[in-house]
Specification:
By secondary structure, the chain is of the alpha+beta class. Helices cover 39% and strands 14% of the residues. Its cofactor is FAD.
Length: 667
């Protein structure tokens, strides 16, 4: 077991990043023209990094498996992006954002990285406004803010219910400018199959052209991975169908440590599962918890009647409803962090109070908000003595302006009008806080291989606060990586172009082809989805919202057996040397079958509950997470040694000099 060097600069927390930028080496503009960088993934983290690096003068190659960077899963982050600008005058600051993020992550994130994130947050908003991102504005013309879970201020900037999409279009426009200048060469419909190391340094990738099936070699002086999270290891998640762990896992197999794989976020505000036919889940933005009140019936008889269709939720009187988050957490109410809200919903449903046919749903109700906004609007417009109908009409208009596209989406999927009847929601796998271990410079344990956004582990600890994913992705891409990668590349100004005919490229390409051939040679008994669904069920049942030692041990054994069966019996029609989407899926599921076992192993070794990692053996009498700071105040970073069971644990001890560790309380 080794101790990891995070390379956090010395000095006061508030000065670390500024001093570090002053101390690191730079590459002059003339030399940047001679340096190549590969960016894998073109969502918010990858797109912003590629655009910024190209603007600085580097030659950038981008790779994404979609037909366009505009289709990156970043568009699904609907609710907003955090920034400590204090436009509301409610006491926000960079320190407050830093504190909320550390506390929200249950004291399992690195202080220096989180403070830097809070520092840079305000710059992100200015950057995006300059790009034309249409953030919502309040009556005075300033950008508007709303609240998200786990905070007591309004710091979330938003563009209706499509913030991620608008931010991605801003980054995409910046990328397009560089593509037109010839500084970015875009390889769409390409998937990274492996990382190429030359003398221990990342010097390129092997990619597969998903249209032709051709295997290609691409070289660079450094490689940036910005390929998002691994939530699809659960099969059913809010992630896009194609979201995968392949790039990160290929790097892991080449020597990049994988950190905290068991830290996975369950989002409380998703449309419930409707049946076995489903292949993905739909996220309803956390922003809805600003105005929606979450409840279940107080009496089990009423819950049964609702499930059986004998009673409608609107028929239940106010006094017969249990607004359980407001009851249990009066200080934060419906805006508790995601892990807390998710577990509370599970507890109510497990107790028999669930409200859909499966018993796994709670209500998110906007009736109170419609009435409140309606009365406010009537007063604002000078309407005296408005009747109930007028108040409701005005209130619905306000809700539509704030969340209209989300309400539309819900109605299309569920076929119920959420203006008239409460939404049904239930927790689902959403974001992954674990990922490739990176130091303060965002470099992995492989020299020259960097990792940005959700694909790394660095900023969120054991739970991510809402609206912080977009913040981290853009901070890494626009404001962190372009500085820190220059320090590394300053040693490469005399290296010259990296040739792709080196033995290392040849050997890695041969390994890729051999793996593809092995995938194609299964006996053909079961489809790829058959294995993915089986894996997902093991993960959800034994590594999901609640975990215990017995279940995790069973999961490790079951996943290992499932993986062996997969390689023996998977069915992949078609050929490897052409378009073959089933082959694409198979490669991704093969990696999930390894990651899933490491995930369970990581959860089994962490004998505490913290954030999204809830071990049933470690909880307070009230059912809250029980941390063990004496024994587990560290980042788990796993080194690949072949089978996941043989992975070696390395620790990065977490030091808190600026924040007092205490039990999280949102009461």
């Amino acid at each position: 077991m080794g101790i990891l060097d995070s390379k956090v600069p010395k000095g006061p927390l508030a000065n670390k990043w500024t001093q570090h930028k002053n101390d690191i080496n730079l590459v002059n503009p003339a030399n940047k023209r001679n340096i190549d960088i590969i960016v894998v993934g073109t969502g918010l983290a990858g797109g912003s990094a590629a655009a910024t690096l190209a603007e600085l003068g580097y030659n950038v190659k981008t790779f994404c498996y979609q037909d366009s960077p505009r289709r990156a899963h970043s568009i699904a982050a609907q609710g907003g992006i955090n920034a400590a600008k204090n436009y509301q005058g409610d006491g926000d600051s960079a320190y407050r954002l830093f504190y909320d993020t550390i506390k929200g992550g249950d004291y399992r994130s690195r202080e220096a990285n989180v403070y830097r994130l809070a520092e840079e947050s305000a710059n992100i908003i200015d950057q995006c406004v300059a790009q034309g991102v249409p953030f919502a504005r309040e009556y005075g013309g300033l950008l508007d803010n709303r609240s998200f879970g786990g905070v007591l201020v309004s710091r979330t900037f938003y563009a209706k219910g499509q913030t991620g999409q608008q931010l991605l279009l801003g980054a995409y426009a910046a990328m397009n400018r560089q593509i037109n200048r010839g500084k970015i060469k875009a390889y769409n419909r390409h998937e990274m199959m492996d990382l190429v190391l030359v003398d221990g340094k990342a010097r390129g990738i092997i990619a597969r052209n998903l249209v032709t099936g051709e295997i290609e070699r691409h070289s660079a002086h450094a490689v940036v991975l910005a390929t998002g999270g691994y939530g699809n290891v659960f099969f059913l998640s809010t992630n896009a169908m194609g979201s995968n762990v392949m790039a990160a896992w290929r790097a892991h197999r080449r020597g990049a440590f994988f950190a905290n794989p068991c830290f996975t976020q369950i989002h409380p505000t998703c449309i419930p599962v409707s049946g076995d036919h489903q292949s993905k889940l739909t996220l309803m933005s956390e922003s809805l918890r600003n105005d929606g009140r979450i409840w279940v019936p107080k009496r089990i008889d009423d819950a049964i009647a609702i499930r059986e269709g004998r009673l409608k939720p609107v028929q239940l009187k106010e006094e017969d409803r249990d607004y359980y988050l407001e009851r249990r957490y009066p200080a934060f109410g419906n805006l508790v962090p995601r892990d807390v809200a998710s577990r509370a919903a599970k507890e109510r449903c497990d107790a028999g109070f669930g409200v859909n046919k499966t018993g796994e749903a709670v209500y998110l109700d906007f009736a109170s908000a419609i009435q409140r906004y309606g009365k406010e609007e009537a007063l604002t417009h000078g309407i005296k003595n408005p009747d109930e109908k007028e108040i409701t009409r005005l209130g619905k208009k306000v809700i539509e302006a704030k969340y209209g596209n989300l309400f539309q989406m819900y109605e299309k999927i569920v076929d119920e009008n959420p203006y008239e009847t409460p939404m049904m929601i239930y927790p689902a796998v959403h974001y992954t806080m674990g990922g490739l271990w990176v130091d303060y410079n965002l470099q992995t344990t492989i020299e020259g291989c960097y990792c940005a956004g959700e694909a790394n582990f660095s900023d969120h600890g054991a739970n991510r606060l809402g609206a912080s994913a977009l913040m981290q992705g853009l901070a890494d891409g626009y404001f962190v990586l372009p500085y820190t990668i220059g320090d590394y590349l300053s040693k490469d100004i005399r290296t010259g172009a990296i040739p792709t005919d080196l033995p290392e490229f040849e050997a890695t390409e041969a390994a890729v082809k051999e793996r593809l051939q092995k995938l194609m040679s299964g006996s053909g008994q079961h489809s790829v989805d058959y294995y993915h669904k089986k894996l997902g069920k093991i993960m959800w049942d034994k590594c999901g919202m609640a975990r215990n030692a017995k279940g995790l041990q069973e999961a490790i054994e079951e996943i290992a057996a499932l993986r062996a069966d997969f390689w023996e019996n998977v069915k992949i029609p078609g050929k490897a040397d052409g378009m073959n989407q089933e082959l694409e899926k198979a490669g991704r599921v093969a990696d999930f079958l390894e990651l899933g076992e490491l995930f369970a192993k990581d959860a089994l070794t962490r004998n505490e509950s913290c954030g999204g990692h809830f071990r049933e053996e470690y909880q307070t009498p009230e059912g809250e997470a029980l941390r063990d700071d004496e024994n587990f105040k560290f980042v788990s970073a796993w080194e690949y040694k072949g089978e996941p069971k043989d992975a070696v644990l390395h620790k990065e001890e977490l030091v808190y000099e600026n924040i007092e560790l205490k039990t999280r309380s949102y009461k």
